[in-house]
């Protein structure tokens, strides 16, 4: 398939409003979905203007401009704010970093970032390969460069040479025994129990961390979904919990979905009991609304509760970032004596899916529970990992 294909997401051409690039299709590699890169803002550059070609200043600074002052060419501040808010902060930051790295490289090598030539793009891909970047990172970089051109009214550079470089690089990695796609290890339920036991101390940070790991596993949640939960999004019912996920990577329209999470058989890994303990602690400290998962400093001070002054930075309400979810898991796994090299926040999602399938759950039910698109190749990849042992053709072959 062509990894550089993309579909439209909102683009803002208003000074001061980030231009939002296009997002690769659902069939693109995991990690590219929902990405957005701030490109040049304001007046569209004229590629034939005299002097040096238009484009970002060295280091990826944004070039401001003005549009013709007619009503048809402007939007209000509130509209501009909504356009900017349509792209999650994390994805905007990710593509902004990619774009800044490309423009900085162009500055160092004396090349033009916008408009970029096919040769410049191929050289940049080769430079990323020399740095040992993952093929998925290179794919995203190519998509980001093309998107920056589109949202600024320019023809994207041809990617034939760049894709040829990437293909050869994948072959080099394979010959060297390096994986071309890093896959987070699925967290087995036995390891989940070890982690929960290591966090059974009753301290504020361990109560939060145990809820994070257990609920994330039981929901098969993405890290952004966990970080985005508010206290009001998790409701206890007779059968367990009903968790409202208001927005996710595959639900950019924010239609939302509800995830039913039943009681666990082991008190330490029961999502309901873990929630009760954490919610009770927050209530004791006067917090009954706001983010579910929030920052706790080393003294046990919880951010976002009345009168609390935790050490460190972060948002005032204390909401955790998606990156923090991964840090919580790896730190807890290390305490439990587990290897952490292949663990990431995605290990919770993969672990919940493989655990459910191993226990006999239906593939469609697993997909809907975890918010995968029907027929998701990512979900099928997890299932294949289980099936190669569960339904191995050599079982009973007489070896």
Automatic annotation (TrEMBL):
Pfam families: Phage_integrase (PF00589). Keywords: DNA recombination, DNA-binding. Residues 1-61 are annotated as: Disordered. One of its GO terms (molecular function) is DNA binding. GO terms for biological process: DNA integration; DNA recombination. CDD domains: INT_Cre_C. Residues 182-395 form the Tyr recombinase domain. Residues 73-153 form the Core-binding (CB) domain. PANTHER family: DNA ADENINE METHYLTRANSFERASE, PHAGE_INTEGRASE DOMAIN-CONTAINING PROTEIN. This is Integrase.
């Amino acid at each position: 398939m062509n990894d550089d294909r993309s579909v439209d997401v909102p683009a803002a051409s208003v000074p001061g409003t980030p231009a939002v690039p296009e997002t690769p299709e659902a069939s693109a590699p995991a990690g590219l979905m929902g990405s957005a890169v701030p490109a040049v803002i304001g007046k569209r550059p004229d590629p034939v203007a005299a002097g040096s070609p238009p484009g970002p200043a060295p280091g990826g600074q944004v070039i401001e401009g003005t549009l013709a002052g007619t009503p048809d060419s402007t939007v209000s501040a509130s509209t501009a704010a909504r356009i900017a808010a349509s792209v999650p902060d994390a994805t905007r930051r990710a593509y902004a970093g990619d774009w800044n790295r490309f423009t900085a490289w162009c500055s160092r090598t004396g090349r033009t970032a916008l408009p970029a030539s096919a040769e410049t793009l191929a050289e940049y891909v080769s430079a990323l390969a020399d740095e040992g970047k993952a093929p998925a990172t290179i794919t995203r970089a190519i998509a980001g460069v093309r998107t920056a051109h589109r949202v600024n009214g320019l023809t994207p550079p041809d990617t034939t040479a760049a894709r040829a470089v990437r293909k050869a690089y994948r072959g080099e990695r394979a010959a060297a025994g390096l994986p071309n796609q890093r896959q987070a290890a699925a967290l087995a339920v036995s390891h989940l129990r070890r982690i929960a036991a290591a966090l059974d101390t009753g301290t504020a940070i361990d109560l939060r961390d145990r809820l994070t790991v257990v609920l994330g596993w039981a929901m098969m949640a993405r890290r952004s979904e966990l970080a985005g939960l508010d206290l009001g999004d998790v409701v206890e019912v007779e059968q367990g919990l009903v968790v409202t996920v208001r927005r996710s990577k595959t639900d950019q329209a924010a239609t939302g979905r509800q995830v039913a999470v039943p009681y666990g058989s082991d008190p330490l890994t029961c999502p309901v009991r873990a929630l009760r303990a954490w919610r009770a602690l927050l209530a004791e400290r006067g917090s009954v609304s706001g983010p579910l998962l929030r920052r706790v400093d080393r003294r046990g001070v919880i951010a976002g509760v009345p009168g609390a002054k935790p050490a460190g930075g972060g948002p005032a309400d204390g909401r955790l970032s998606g990156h923090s979810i991964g840090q919580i898991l790896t730190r807890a796994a290390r305490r439990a004596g587990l290897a952490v090299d292949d663990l990431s926040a995605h290990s919770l999602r993969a672990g919940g899916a493989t655990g459910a399938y191993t226990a006999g759950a239906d593939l469609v039910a697993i997909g809907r529970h975890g918010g995968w698109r029907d027929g998701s190749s990512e979900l099928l990849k997890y299932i294949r990992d289980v099936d190669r042992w569960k339904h191995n053709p050599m079982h009973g072959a007489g070896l």
